[in-house]
Amino acid sequence: MSKAQNVFYKVAASKKNKLSDLKAAVAGAASGIAGTMIIRPLDMIVDIKALGGDLAWPKPKATYWGTTKNIYKTHGLKGFYAGSVGKVLKIAPQMGITFLVYKKVSDYLDKKTFKPRVPLVIKKNK
Question: By Cβ atoms counted within 10 A, which residue in 8, 73, 115, 126 is the most buried?
């Protein structure tokens, strides 16, 4: 094993690189918020197509592109993010808990079954 590989395995096995519970939960919440805000415009178009429009929202066009243009004409860019606060308040805690549970289970299993990884070393023939 080379010196670099040896250092890598020592660092990977050290407790200093373990993510704290709070950091795992915050990372999960942040990923949920980011994912929601990225996908929300597409989700809004699908929601309007599924609901068929009402007094506040325009009647959906036959195509997704037509519905997109109609939302933009009627409500502007804000129209694509309507309802985002409710989605974020739902998703952020959900993803925080998911990341935390994953971390706890992963840590538990690592304690029970941790075996240092031995890298595959191919010896060169001389």
Answer: 8
